[in-house]
Amino acid sequence: MRIRLRSVCLVALLAARVLRGQNSAADEPALWSSYGTCAHPTAMIIELRADERLLHRKTVNFCHSRHAQIWQRHFASMMTFAVPGGRTYQDEYRTTRAEAIRADVWQASADTDAVVLGISFASKRQILLNTLHLLMPGKSRTDTIDRGLTVTSYPASARKRSNDR
To answer: Which residue range(s) make up the domain with 43?
Structure first.
């Protein structure tokens, strides 16, 4: 499946960067992260949509900081919200309309030019979808993460999206 292949490629990219080794603090590159503070953060809007209908939108600030300035090492959810059931995930996991589905978005990794967001949808019984979205601060990007499900990240300075029903 295309989604799984993309996830495997992103994980391989992250692993290769980790295997390169640790730098000393002096030559450590600046990383994009939502965990830390800076004088001029880059505000990004993150939207999740199902069948083009807005499920959730949040503005998150990102800073380009040295690793030592990033105050949180264990990434917590930046977005958690409920979505209605009644859809099938990954062409395999069916949910009923009565089920409450929990959606989580968190920072999975910090990098020099991007932030990897983890995105999951889960019922009380199982994880229905667990995937990644590459957020590039200052740039717009949309990924289809499953049939009819999209995640979009774009600068907060950009015009708000339409179809916000």
So the answer is: 2-19+31-155
